[in-house]
Amino acid sequence: MLFESGQTIVFIGDSITDAGRRAEASPYGRGYVGLVRAILLGAYPDRRLTIVNRGFAGDTVRHLAARWDEDAIGLKPDWLSVKIGINDVWRAFGDNAHEAVPLPEYRATLRTLLMRARAESGCRLIVMEPYLIEPDRADPMRARMDEYGLAAREIAAELDAVNVRTQEAFDSALNSSEPAAWADDRVHPNIEGHAVIALAFLRAVGFEL
């Protein structure tokens, strides 16, 4: 397992990371971050890991850029896990299309933020790909999301970051189930959907029972 004794892991992203951490489920949320924390601390109590959740519902990379110094670099993480991109795409398909983030901007902003975090805090990086819980790859939103996911994957490879292939995890689950089993809107997971994300994360960081 990649996490060493005494390390701090900061998770930052949108509503999937937030998962109520600023409200009734403070401070870790009722989603994948809380699940990852519970499993890691239960399996490795001697490592005394610190988990910090800085997800914020509705965020795009633009929002991350505005709070990056305080909620990422300023926390001096040993590991920084970033999961962003769903709103950057999703808003192009709703009533707030002007708030969608074009792919070139998404790619450039995410790369810049990650490079700054690594240079200024010395942290190691974890890049979680955005996803849509939709098996039809010709679906317009799924096709667009795949482009953003590929951009995140390429940046992870460029920066020697751990890459969490969230879309692949849901695609595997969808081989034997329907999207509604994991989320009502193809985006915001139920607890089982968050477990899919948590397991993908844990596999990527080398967790073993």
Helix and strand arrangement:
Blueprint: E1 8-13, H1 15-18, H2 32-43, E2 50-55, H3 61-71, E3 79-83, H4 86-90, H5 103-121, E4 124-128, H6 140-158, E5 162-164, H7 166-173, H8 191-204
Parallel strand pairs: 1-2, 1-3, 3-4, 4-5
How would you characterize this protein structure?
The protein has helices at 15-18, 32-43, 61-71, 86-90, 103-121, 140-158, 166-173, 191-204, and strands at residues 8-13, 50-55, 79-83, 124-128, 162-164. With 209 residues, the chain is an alpha/beta fold. It has a single domain, classed as SGNH hydrolase (Rossmann fold), CATH 3.40.50.1110. The chain has a 5-stranded parallel beta sheet with strand order 2-1-3-4-5, with helices on both faces. Strand 4 (124-128), helix 6 and strand 5 (162-164) form a beta-alpha-beta unit. The model has no long low-confidence stretch (mean pLDDT 97).
Task: Summarize, please.
By secondary structure, the protein is an alpha/beta fold. The chain has 8 helices and 5 strands. The radius of gyration is 16 Å and the shape is globular.
What is the arithmetic mean of pLDDT?
Answer: 97
Q: Characterize the biggest β-sheet.
A: 5 strands, parallel
Q: In angstroms, what is the radius of gyration?
A: 16 Å
Dominant shape: globular
Secondary-structure-derived class: alpha/beta
Q: Could you say what the CATH topology is called?
A: Rossmann fold
Measured between the Cα atoms of the first and last residue, the distance is 10 Å
Given the structure, what is the number of helices?
Answer: 8
Fraction of helical residues: 40-55%
Could you tell me the strand content as a percent range? 5-15%
Number of β-strand runs = 5
How many domains comprise the coordinates? 1
Q: Which architecture would the CATH scheme give at its second level?
A: 3-Layer(aba) Sandwich
Q: Stretches where pLDDT falls below 50 for ≥5 residues?
A: none
| Cross-sheet strand order for the largest sheet | 2-1-3-4-5
CATH class: Alpha Beta
The CATH superfamily turns out to be SGNH hydrolase
H/E series:
EHHEHEHHEHEHH
